[in-house]
Amino acid sequence: MIIGIDLGTTNSLVAVWKDGKAQLVPNSLGDMLTPSCVSLDEDGSVLVGKAARERLQTHPERTASVFKRYMGSDKKVRLETREFRAEELSAFVLKSLKADAEAFLGETVTEAVITVPAYFSDAQRKATRTAGLLAGLTVERLLNEPSAAALAYGMHQMGSESRFLVFDLGGGTFDVSILELFEGVMEVRASAGDNYLGGEDITNAIVDLFFQRNNLNSSLRNNPMFVQRLGASAEAAKRSLSAGQAASVQIHLDGKDIQMDLDEEELDKLCAPLLKRMREPVERALRDTNIRSNELNSIVLAGGATRMPVIKRLVTLMFGRFPTSDINPDEVVALGAAVQAGLKMKDAALDEVVMTDVSPYSLGVEISMRLADGNNADGHFSPVIERNTAVPVSRVKRYFPMDMRQTKVDLRVYQGESRLVKDNILLGRLEVPLPANETENKGVDVRFTYDVNGLLEVRASLEGSKESHTLVIQGNPGMLSDAEIAQRFNELGKIKMHPRDTLEMRTLLARADRIYQQVRGDLRNWLGHQIAEFEGVLESQNPRLINPAKSKFSDMLNSVERDSHLHSDFDPQPN
Ligand code: AMP
């Protein structure tokens, strides 16, 4: 069985193609969304999901979140005494989802389709594949998130002919795709996006406003506990405003309660610069497909941040019509990944369905230009594969050395749309030796092969020669070698995951700890007593005592949280 995984910045989901349809898999708490948070528990085991998210506030030095932003870089996150790369933290999330799928299916799972933002670079895609390997999963396919959303949406539209645009605003990334559906063939025509734009930026803008309005000392930004609490309160305020209520951001500091009221108008103002950045990818995708916005049959929303009224208004304004949100925007990408898994398994129910995708960015090499005055202008970009070309694709282009006496060509491969390579992303370098004593300037044929996973191979061969050189990405700090992957796989294997069957209790206690830290006075003393009592019941290991105590304890936490106006439980509201 191949499983479909949406490995998100804030939340991750797993789904399977079963009994002729895509189905979401619940985690051990019964939730479909597993927060992409990892925490090292005091006993050395790893907590993933809600328990870890609770500990962001109580144990920030042992807990990590939003690490998807560091995929493909060599940034390390310290949890207590150990440092982890983003691939390793993602691997813990994947291990947890894999265990949930195994419990759901009653069989071992070793293969997965994992979704990535369309704009993920080669290094970020490879890092995602590595995360899969580290979790014991072979990644059968890396699928672009908006294409996954489209696949899930398209399944509902099969048999009709339509053109639609997927507007996907997640926690950390923004993606736009335009698709055409015709007789079961779903064709992605164009993708565009911004890797550094998402709902988290809106939360950060609220935090910045809080600092500004209350004249807070910027050194507080280095206090992880304060930053987490303020972030949680800002996030909660943002979400309440999606439901239409006025909201406030509150925090206790140096014996004082500091509060900032926030209304919809103010939130809209804060979002304005971010909204501006959303226009450009939409316009580019429309331009690349030569489709006018009034020729689109529907606009599909995906990603948690599209729940914000200001985003819905922007979409409505941009396209002159209301967007569709038939499928829960949090779940649509995972469901599409499961459809892709079904396609991979050649499920009979998907016999008629074909999906084609594109390369969302241009890929090319650095060149020098000879100017009319005889001087050279270096650092120019020459695309070999233009953005939004259907994949898989293989293109070859011939380049000539600037000087016949050159002994080698240093080929630098870039991704991006800018005229100058300094504004694009360097993917790797390839050295091609040139034969000495040539009498004519021989060209170098550069072949780019880009596969359906969005992974690139570059080959260079001398004109007329059979010998070719294949790109080995050098000096890219974002990449682990096969040997390093094997070594880290063994190391990670030594760290135990918290057992699935006791995760619910562990989560409840993590939540109680967080609430304990947030309240004060008599309530706090009383709560401390309640926690100790509950721990005592847990130690009895008697299910007849534990089960009723668990419900009572959970109800008690709900009411303390409600009465004290604490916010931290970010379960999405129903549509
Ligand atoms: P995703 O990566 O698709 O899970 O999206 C997560 C992002 O959606 C985060 O930035 C959340 O703050 C945001 N989000 C989720 N639900 C809401 C909501 N009801 N209102 C505003 N933002 C939300």
Topology:
Layout: E1 2-7, E2 11-18, E3 21-24, E4 34-35, E5 38-40, E6 46-48, H1 50-58, E7 63-64, E8 76-79, E9 82-85, H2 86-105, E10 111-116, H3 122-134, E11 138-144, H4 145-155, E12 162-169, E13 174-182, E14 185-194, H5 199-213, H6 224-242, E15 247-253, E16 256-262, H7 264-289, E17 298-302, H8 309-319, H9 332-344, E18 354-358, E19 363-370, E20 376-385, E21 390-391, E22 393-399, E23 408-415, E24 425-433, E25 444-450, E26 456-462, E27 468-470, H10 482-493, H11 503-518, H12 521-540, H13 543-563
Parallel strand pairs: 1-10, 10-11, 12-17, 14-18
Antiparallel strand pairs: 1-2, 2-3, 2-4, 5-6, 5-7, 8-9, 12-13, 13-14, 15-16, 18-21, 19-20, 19-23, 22-25, 23-24, 25-26, 26-27
Helix pairs in contact: 1-11, 2-3, 4-9, 5-6, 5-7, 7-8, 11-12, 11-13, 12-13
The protein binds adenosine monophosphate.
* CATH fold description of the domain at 363-466: Substrate Binding Domain Of DNAk, Chain A, domain 1
Enumerate the spans where pLDDT stays under 50 for 5 or more consecutive residues.
568-575
* Bound molecule types: adenosine monophosphate
Distance between the termini: 31 Å
Q: Which structural class fits the helix and strand makeup?
A: alpha+beta
Shape: globular
